[in-house]
Amino acid sequence: MPPETWLIALSVTAIAALLQGTVGVGYAVVAVPVLSLIDPDLAPMPQILTALPLTLAMLWREHASVDFKGAGWLVAGRVPGIFLGIGLLAIVSQRTLDLIIGLIVLVGVAVLAFGLHVRRTAWTQFGAGVASGTSGFVAAIGGPPTALLYSSAEAATLRSTLAGVFSVGISMSIVARFASGNATTADIRISLGLLPAVLAGWFLSTLIKDRVPRERVRMGVFVVSAVAAIGLILQSLLG
What pLDDT, on a 0 to 100 scale, did the predictor assign at position 72? Predict the structure, then answer.
């Protein structure tokens, strides 16, 4: 891969990690589509692999703010969500799934942005976990369902809880992808090359996260989720 390609890839990765480290989501939303255009080998599996150290670092940083009970239900939901994703990929085309997931997320953003409050209960958290597990496995973008549910929480709670859930969920996705033949050793090599940029973005987010008001974090969740949804819809229609 040419040096200039790697430089762009590292820059995009650092920016995406900075966004997730500050808002709680956004790494895959930014990195996957952009890096896919630069070189198909750069995504999406390398982002799944590099997201794990990023979320673990975020969890370690703000572990005192984790909603452990909610995280438990979200993780429980991701298990059937991954199996649902595997089953859907076997019977429905990737383009159709991208379109469906994109539309659902976009509707969710619109509803919450206009004031509807979804109460966090065991059922809503489990349901968000299922949706996150499915969309994460199918499209490598599993953040929006969970992030939208926690969009009204304190910023530290949102970031840390999502980081904990993502750490477990990403680990499941990695195992599932290797077990199902949807990952290679080349993905591991690329992810190791991108890892320094991930850590750099996380470090920068540590310096600015407390300066970002709660409402800005909430708005960031909406914007990132909407961009993810629109990206999936366009990918489905134009791909």
Answer: 96
